[in-house]
Amino acid sequence: ENDLVYFKNINPTEFLGYNNERSESKIIQIFNLDNAQTDFLNFDKEGYIVLNQTAFYGESGGQIGDSGKIENQDFTFEVKNTTKAFGSYFLHFGKVTKGSCKLNDDVTASININKRDLIKNNHSSTHLLHAALRKILGNHVTQKGSLVNDEKLRFDFSHNEPIDSRFIKKIELLVN
C-alpha cells in the first residue's frame, strides 16, 4: 500500500518555526497508532496530527523534533515529538490530555520554547565543533552523522587516527 495516498488531497504543511514559536492552525489529517486515518482522537488516546501550518520543527538531519501543545477550548493534545512524512507533512505525535480533537478543528500550536532553545544551542555547537576539528586536525575531517537533542549532541566524523589528548584540549578551548 502506498502511504502517499493519505496525503493526496491535502497541501503540505507550511513550516513557520524559523520566526514563530506558535501558530494558529487547522487540523488537516489525524492518524491513530495503527497509522489509520481517523476523524477524531478522544481523551487519553495517542496518535498523529497533521496541521496546515506549524512552528514545530520536524525531526531531521540528526536533530530531534519539537514538543509542545496543540489545543483549543475543547481539547489539549500534548505533542511528544514531531517528524516529517515525505519531507512535506509534519506529523505531531502525542496524546489527548483533555477533551477530544477532530478533523478541521482550528487550534493554537505552541512549541516547548525552553526545549527548543536547548536544542538550538546544541545544534550551533555541532557547527562550532566541526569548524574546530577542521582547524586543529585538518580539512580532511568531515561530518558523518550527528544527534542533536535538548540534553546533548553527538558528532560523528572521519579522521585517520586516534586523537591525542593535547589536540582534544585545543579543540575544546576553540569550541568554548
Characterise this structure.
The protein is an alpha+beta fold. The chain has two helices and twelve strands; from the N terminus they run E-E-E-E-E-E-E-E-E-E-H-E-E-H. It has helices at residues 113-137, 165-175; strands at residues 14-15, 22-32, 40-41, 46-51, 53-54, 68-72, 75-85, 89-99, 101-102, 106-111, 143-148, 153-157. The chain has a six-stranded antiparallel beta barrel. The chain has a two-stranded parallel sheet with strand order 1-5. A two-stranded antiparallel ribbon has the order 3-9. The longest helix is centred in the C-terminal third of the chain and has 25 residues, at 113-137. It is elongated. It starts with 13 loop residues before the first strand and ends with a helix. The model has no long low-confidence stretch (mean pLDDT 94).
Annotate the secondary structure layout:
Blueprint: E1 14-15, E2 22-32, E3 40-41, E4 46-51, E5 53-54, E6 68-72, E7 75-85, E8 89-99, E9 101-102, E10 106-111, H1 113-137, E11 143-148, E12 153-157, H2 165-175
Parallel strand pairs: 1-5
Antiparallel strand pairs: 2-4, 2-10, 3-9, 4-8, 6-7, 6-10, 7-8, 11-12
Helix pairs in contact: 1-2
Structural class: alpha+beta
Order the strands across the largest sheet as they lie in space: 2-4-8-7-6-10
Segments where pLDDT lies below 50 for 5+ residues? none
The gyration radius over C-alpha positions equals 20 Å
Tally of contiguous helical segments: 2
Number of strands: 12
Please state roughly what percent of the residues sit in beta strands, choosing from under 5%, 5-15%, 15-25%, 25-35%, 35-45% or over 45%: 35-45%
N- to C-terminal distance: 50 Å
Helicity range: 10-25%
Mean pLDDT: 94
CA-based shape: elongated
What string, H for helix and E for strand, traces the elements in order? EEEEEEEEEEHEEH
Largest sheet entry: 6 strands, antiparallel, barrel
